[in-house]
Amino acid sequence: MTLLEQRVDPTEFGFDAARLDRIQTHFDTYVQSRRLAGWVATVARAGQLVWCGKAGHQDRERGIEVSDETIWRIYSMTKPLTSIAAMILYEEGRFDLNDDAGKWIEALNEPRVYRSGPARNPQTVPAIGPVRVHHLMTHMSGLTYGFNYLHPVDAMYRANGYDFGYPKGANLEKAVDDWCSMPLLFQPGDRWNYSVATDVLGRLVEIWSGQSLDEFLRERVLEPLGMFDTEWWCPPEKQGRLAMLYVPSQGDSLPNDDIAKGSTHPPQLLGGGGGLLSTAYDYNRFMKMLLGEGELDGVRIVSSRTLELMTQNHLPGGVDLATIATDSFSEVDMAGVGFGLGFSVMLDHAKNKSLVSNGTFSWGGAASTVFWIDPYEELSVSFFTQLLPSGTYPIRRELQQLVYQALVD
Prior knowledge:
Elements: H1 17-32, E1 38-45, E2 48-59, E3 64-65, E4 72-73, H2 79-91, E5 112-116, E6 123-126, H3 133-138, H4 152-159, H5 172-181, H6 197-209, H7 213-222, E7 246-249, E8 252-255, H8 257-260, E9 277-278, H9 280-291, E10 295-296, E11 299-300, H10 304-310, H11 321-324, E12 337-339, E13 344-346, H12 349-352, E14 361-364, E15 370-374, E16 379-384, H13 395-404
Antiparallel strand pairs: 1-2, 1-16, 2-3, 4-9, 5-6, 7-8, 10-11, 12-13, 13-14, 14-15, 15-16
Helix pairs in contact: 2-6, 2-7
């Protein structure tokens, strides 16, 4: 059984227990009002689980309550796992962060950049410089998502079958070739745009390792960390634990079985940018490794220096996302927030109007999941639910407030 066991007194770890319970009270109202069907949240300090709360149902219509073993779609919380996988290979000397990704992906040998015109007949110019590996890890490559609906290049992705899903028959190699054959939004390194870049990175992991992405992740990250419920699909024997996926509707939330059932069979494409399923227990193992500077229970995944590099701001000139990002990503306030190699990084919490410590790194998923690691306070926090899209409610900002107001040491 993979249970979330709280074995310590939160007061011994600097928390006011009564204040921590405000998290439960607050998010209970989400369930009572039907905005969320159910949720699980965890707060750990110094590697010890100091609080865990849950409420509601993993499947409200079938009357199945949320449990520690509920399996959640984590969507883009796959990205930090893929980024860690890539940096394992970096540590083995398989590539340099400054390498031209075109060394391995032919379609990026001579990239072109959108200049003007409609999606059907765009005017493009040659890229001034290469798309480097670090551009992929920082979302500064010029790639995009079809579902952004903001730019003619987004429309090109959709015209080729890449919206929220993929065209029939496409595998990761084919998808990467298609994406990289289309124009970039901007010159590599000039801007930040949330994109399929981590999926391209996942393809590079396959090329560098000689293994499929799922095999490499399982052997080098998931199994060493004991994350045995983190998979690309939910097999029949576990489907009783799989949460339903919900969408908002006039203050309510309604099940979307059409999207939800996609998790019950192997995916046609292993995208490094999304697609994994996990449990709160499993993801807490991953977070504990991150807080442990790359090591968990005597198992080292990456070196402390590698993780330190990943969690620094890599945006040019030390700017924040509010300064350099396109309009593609505005789920939460990006003022004072930078971006590292696979994580957002808090640079200035006063500018962000947040209690989160500077140096905190984090990311979230499309179904309103989120995690963050605060090295200064030795905190790791997670929230799991299944409401698509994220940003429907300010869950992440509210959780930050509720966690930090409970710290009293």
